[in-house]
Hints:
This protein is an all-alpha fold. The protein is built from nine helices and no strands. The protein is 77% helix and 0% strand. The chain is flat and about 55 Å long.
Amino acid sequence: MVNMHLILGHVVADHSFTNNYKIRTYKGWNLIGHMLWSAFAILAFTFDILLKSPKGIAILLTFILIHWVGDWLRTKFYEKGQKRKIDILEATMLVIAVIFNALVASDFSKSYLSAEFVYYLMGMSVVSVGVTYIFRNFYPGKEDLPDIDGISERLAVFVFTLANRPLFAALSLAIAYLYRLFRYKKPDPTWWMSPVLGVGISLLWYVTMH
């Protein structure tokens, strides 16, 4: 299994535990605060390996600097209403993370975080905020969409699927659907897109991990 520690750090920094849409609107101390958070998020998954050697330190510092430049550019593109440029920028940043990760992937085999655990966390990020990213930026394209209910439902499906508990996964979907029907009344396209993507990603991670 490929070690994805640096990639996970990048994903957590920009997507997990934060609203990716709001980052684009940050200015001043809010932007600086996010940049500092990004550095610590990346460090959290890489420090035990990359801080041990000059090569690792150079790669880590260079990547954090590039990440900061990406954060700054994202706000500038948003100010000008260039939303598609933001999509291209964020895709480019992910590719850069993959390239930098490849330079030190073999070193992470000695990390206190196993490759399997990091891959599991990556799956949780993809199934939760990854799907929300699609909803906010492409379809239905509502940038301020909270999607808290969808994230919870997909995470539950992911956890139960990876634990080989299909009955609990199915019950999670049923309860989530009934909750939405009771609370929101009017059906929405994301009602079926969210569980379908949740199940699909969960099954993909189950197969690749087992």
